[in-house]
């Protein structure tokens, strides 16, 4: 399964990507939302794990853009953040909200479950 990870914290992104690869996922990872947006519009993944606090474009901005263009119609969007307020998910941007720290093996299980429901 193709997964995109967007997180500007290198260690978090790299550890999550490596564990998911070991679990059989094909992972593309990005530090910037803008780079992820370009890649996802040309080749949508099955799931995207997106941190909320990024650079110029936030994770929420990225999710809004993906939802508005229809790119996310068949992509499970997962917020992975330290901001507990994201659980409210008022705009319904996210298929799932995970609060850091997230066990990478739980992340793999969650991705499989969410994609199966999408």
TrEMBL record:
<dbReference type="GO" id="GO:0000160">
    <property type="term" value="P:phosphorelay signal transduction system"/>
</dbReference>
<dbReference type="InterPro" id="IPR011006">
    <property type="entry name" value="CheY-like_superfamily"/>
</dbReference>
<keyword id="KW-0597">Phosphoprotein</keyword>
<dbReference type="InterPro" id="IPR050595">
    <property type="entry name" value="Bact_response_regulator"/>
</dbReference>
<dbReference type="InterPro" id="IPR001789">
    <property type="entry name" value="Sig_transdc_resp-reg_receiver"/>
</dbReference>
<feature type="modified residue" description="4-aspartylphosphate">
    <location>
        <position position="51"/>
    </location>
</feature>
<protein>
    <submittedName>
        <fullName>Two-component hybrid sensor and regulator</fullName>
    </submittedName>
</protein>
<dbReference type="Pfam" id="PF00072">
    <property type="entry name" value="Response_reg"/>
</dbReference>
<feature type="domain" description="Response regulatory">
    <location>
        <begin position="2"/>
        <end position="115"/>
    </location>
</feature>
């Amino acid at each position: 399964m193709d997964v995109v990870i967007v997180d500007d914290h290198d260690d978090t992104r790299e550890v999550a990507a490596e564990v998911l690869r070991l679990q059989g996922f094909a992972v593309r990872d990005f530090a910037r939302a803008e780079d992820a947006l370009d890649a996802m519009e040309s080749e949508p993944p099955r799931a995207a794990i997106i941190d909320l606090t990024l650079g110029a474009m936030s994770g929420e901005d990225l999710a809004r853009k993906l939802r508005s263009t229809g790119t996310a119609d068949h992509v499970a969007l997962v917020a992975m953040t330290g901001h507990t307020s994201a659980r409210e998910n008022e705009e319904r941007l996210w298929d799932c909200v995970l609060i850091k720290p997230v066990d990478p093996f739980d992340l793999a299980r969650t991705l499989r479950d969410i994609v199966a429901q999408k």
